[in-house]
Amino acid sequence: xxxxxxxxxxxxxxxxxxxxxxxxxxxxxxxxxxxxxxxxxxxxxxxxxxxxxxxxxxxxxxxxxxxxxxxxxxxxxxxxxxxxxxxxxxxxxxxxxxxxxxxxxxxxxxxxxxxxxxxxxxxxxxxxxxxxxxxxxxxxxxxxxxxxxxxxxxxxxxxxxxxxxxxxxxxxxxxxxxxxxxxxxxxxxxxxxxxxxxxxxxxxxxxxxxxxxxxxxxxxxxxxxxxxxxxxxxxxxxxxxxxxxxxxxxxxxxxxxxxxxxxxxxxxxxxxxxxxxxxxxxxxxxxxxxxxxxxxxxxxxxxxxxxxxxxxxxxxxxxxxxxxxx
Length: 326
Fold this sequence. Notes:
The protein has 326 residues and is of the alpha/beta class. It contains twelve helices and eleven strands. Strands 2-1-3-10-4-11 form a six-stranded mixed beta sheet. Strands 7-6-8-5-9 form a five-stranded mixed beta sheet. It starts with 6 loop residues before the first helix and ends in a 5-residue tail after the last helix.
């Protein structure tokens, strides 16, 4: 007599034979596409870095990796969406110095808590910051800019990507470190601020080097100092903030991947391994180099330590500058 097995039972037997000992169907990850939420609009440095890394992670994970841009509120809207996603690894996101260190230090309240709601996956890269001026400003060095600002209190203006942004915090740190009175002009994103810096509506801009570099190379902005540990090959004549004794400004912007809290460790580890594989890809390294970003693969714990270190530093800076964003 021939016995008939239900299709589901047959599939279960087949999987038990194919899977390694101790594994189950639930531990097959990923079995569908993974979404990476970018908490900023398309086209910026965070988006560019996310897309090249996601494309390379597709090969490592064996599934599509899809970008979902959710900008707004200095990255808080998108970061809250990451935090509220199901903790299964299928929705992760980009974490930056703004969303993981500056926003928690500067905003009066946030729709997410970095420690309680997010799980670090891994650092992608760090990028230097730069202070630039419109070429018509009669200053060739930071010392000359400081002298000009002190001679004309409140007359010079610096632009930022918005209240609580990297550029805002750096501008306030610069004022404190140099004892100058320069006016803050917040914009809705770095693009408009760059445009007005080139046009002369503002005189000074603090920004990630990746977005300002093309304008510096075209002579539309003049770079005065960078936040990297050493001078950069791409700007060999531009000193570091540390060289100038402005140690409070010598911090780097960072980019990494985060997941919702309570995502299983084995899922985090698999995502981290895929990220490391992506960062070893020559195309990824070349693209990051064009963004002045050096790949820095590491463990989730390393990224967690960096986030904590930067948050503590930003908290001190925010308190000193009396920055509070509602």
